[in-house]
Amino acid sequence: MAKAKYVFVTGGVTSSLGKGIISASLGKLLQARGFKVTIQKFDPYINIDPGTLNPYEHGECYVTDDGAETDLDLGHYERFLNTPTSQANNITTGRIYNNVITKERKGEYLGKTVQVVPHITDEIKRNIFLLGESGEYDFVITEIGGCVGDIESLPFIEAVRQTKWDVGQNNSIVIHLTLIPYLKAAKELKTKPTQHSVKQLLEAGIQPDILVCRSEMKLPDDIRKKLALFCNVKYNSVIEALDAETIYDVPILMRKEKLAERVLTKLKISNKTEPALDQWKEFLGRLKNPTDEVKIGLIGKYVELPDAYKSIMEAFIHAGVDNECKVDLQPVSSESLNEDNCHSVLGQFDGILVAPGFGERGIPGKILAVQYVRENKIPFFGICLGMQCAVIEFTRNVLKIKDAGSTEFDEKTKSPVIDLMEEQKKVTNMGGTMRLGAYPCNLKRGSRTSAIYGKTKISERHRHRYEFNNKYLEKIEKAGMIASGINPDTGLVEVVELTDHPWFVGTQYHPELKSTVLNPHPLFVKFVEAALHNKKENKS
Ligand code: GLN
Q1: How high is the pLDDT of residue 118?
Q2: How confident is the model at residue 306 (pLDDT cuts 50, 70, 90)?
Q3: Strands, E, within 243-378: which ranges?
Q4: Where does the pLDDT of residue 75 fall: very low under 50, low under 70, confident under 90, or very high at 90 and above?
Q5: What pLDDT, on the 0 to 100 scale, is given for residue 422?
Q6: pTM more than 0.85
Q7: Residues above pLDDT 70, as percent of the chain
């Protein structure tokens, strides 16, 4: 296909309907027909990116290879499509305004009054066309965050309206995702909220082409007809999106509802190929028919909020499927752990992961958890802060350097085994200044980690400020914790492992960000395998 086609996904009635999963599923269905697809998300908040947002506000911050701190929906896009996203795939209102204001300061608007229309909308469109005109994609799917009618999303909706005119009717469509609530007392599905939400889009000059309707119940014929009639869409463009058992079912559900066919027809693309979904279906088959189960403890501090550890949770699903085993991932608040309850809480797990995080809160519990698994030979996986806690615990309890710590929690610690790098010390701005994105890492031949990866040169994604302090490296290695992964350019330690332990690996990077349905991450796969092994040994 010569030119990219543009698909916009808007949402109405309420947030949290799953625009990200619908976008990723449509992307998957188009990709399975041989098209090149990318998915982009516009977020209508003023932060430049979610990097400075608390997980309680926003859930996990996902990081791309090129170091963008992004919305967690980009994780879904990558996990579904198995292709990387980049800075260009997540744009916020803050970034749009920042770009426009920077141009204004440079005098680029030649004395004109800078306005929402056309300057802000032009900047939004520039970001849409940046992907569309790169020549790399047949389809650019753009998800508009928030709900139609929100004050914040108005400029984005206006940019969608203009794009439809710019590229012509056959090159762009709008899919509107809404909710069809079921009223128990009336025993009825209700279409009115959707009608109103479509009216709001119409007020903004946009007629949606396809309606995707989230519903707890199947949509009967008369409801579909009513929606078609009152929302000016074809009967077969009313797509039912029932609650799914797992997000990975959604592409298959959308296939049954012929979502991609409708998109292709509307965009006048004739494509008779059957989508190649065999691998996806095989994944689903294994996911639903596990032959075993392991219980993994996830020690973190945002445990009430599942979205805070989204990529870790998904990586465990992928790794479980690879092992034909269900992973029962149980969050444990590190703040609730103490010496008295440590055994009763942690003793039930076949493996333990200590999660990434920031700040002092919950650190003693994380260190205690590491000590417990190290001494009891329970498989351990530490990610970022989890790896740093493992280094601190080892230095304190094996090397007997009792005051070992990280300058993140105690600036004055006399034994900073985890410390800020020189260049981080100069940083004053919080946004976008961590070590972000993909960095190369060389794995030590003969180490557990290189055996797991099956190679010695890897690249993984980072998001942190603090690092293993190489002043302690020799002592730590002599005592049995080896640095099995080193950054070839800076000498920074990226992976540690214990030689005298069945499975103990800590990574300074975030492997969970690169696990996809088709490429489960080897560290997660082998960690689950080790947990299974541990469970079997304990039984016998
Ligand atoms: N707070 C630690 C640091 O900044 C770890 C960050 C993380 O776990 N992502 O280095």
Answers
A1: 97
A2: confident
A3: 292-300, 325-333, 351-354
A4: very high
A5: 81
A6: yes
A7: 100
Token digits for 359? 């700040």
Q: Is 530 strand, coil or helix?
A: helix
Nearest atom, ligand 1, residue 355 CA: 8
Q: Check: CB of residue 241 under 8 Å from CB of residue 254.
A: yes
Q: How far is the CA of 316 from the centre of ligand 1 (A)?
A: 21
Is residue 383 within 8 Å of residue 354, measured between CB atoms? yes
CA–centroid distance, residue 385 to ligand 1 (Å): 5
Q: What is the residue whose two structure tokens read 């890492």?
A: 441
Match 């975030």 to its residue by tokens: 510
CA–CA separation, 524 and 313 (whole Å)? 10
Residue among 408, 439, 462 whose CB has most ligand 1 atoms within 8 A, to mutate: 408
Residue 540 above 80 pLDDT?
A: no
Task: From the CA of 357, give the closest atom in ligand 1.
Answer: 8
> Is the CB of 465 inside a 6 Å radius of any atom of ligand 1?
yes
Q: Give me ligand 1 centre to Cα 434, in Å.
A: 9
Query: Is any ligand 1 atom within 6 A of the Cβ of residue 385?
Result: yes
Dihedral of alpha carbons 277, 282, 285, 288, sign: negative
Q: What is the pLDDT, as a whole number, of residue 276?
A: 95
* pLDDT tier, 2 (very low <50, low <70, confident <90, very high otherwise): low
Per DSSP, 302 falls in state -
How much is the average pLDDT of 72-91?
Answer: 97
Q: Please answer whether residues 194 and 227 qualify as being in contact, where contact means their C-beta atoms are separated by less than 8 angstroms.
A: yes
Q: Is 358 in the pocket of ligand 1 (CB under 6 A)?
A: yes
